[in-house]
Amino acid sequence: MATKRPLGRPPVSSRQDVEAVAVELFLARGFEQTTVDDIAAAAGIGRSTFFRYFPAKADVLWLPFDHHLDRLPATLAERPLAEPLTTAIIHGVMQAMRESGDPRGVWLRRFVAQEEQALQEQESVRWSRWAAVVAGFAAKRLPGARGELAAAMLGAATQALIRSMLRRRAGRDTRTETVLDEIERELHALLGPLQAWLDQIGS
Which of 67, 152, 158, 199 to pair with 48, CA 20 to 30 A apart? Predict the structure, then answer.
């Protein structure tokens, strides 16, 4: 006689599926109030399977961002030297973001969960590293002390705009690609007018 399958959510089968379940629990209950056992139970997996995918609970939120951060220097470095600096930053950043996104929007909802107080210090450290990557790329194309200052400003301004828009848009029922398109338009509006000033510094 065949054994009946228990009612409830079917077990998930990939790291991305576990990630989606965990993020939804974080949003519904809070990060600190959600345990690994809660995630495993909701996903229909064992604790050992969870830890095979993620070293710790917080890594559900940080691993995808860390992969994005690891990829960002390469997408910036791939931009042609003849390309205006602001355009290179925008295209390099957006390429890395699109590679990190997912059609289900889990990547976006993660930014809402990251606003919890328990995670804010880790979030600030990672976004500071992100801004430093952009600033480091810009500094290679801008000479002297003015160039160094301008590069730091570009990194900070780009980071602030993206971080603000992700927080503002991530909690809504919006497609990932729609949000990324909006971010790209706003980056052009923010950085585009600075190109003439940057050309003076670089000349």
Answer: 67
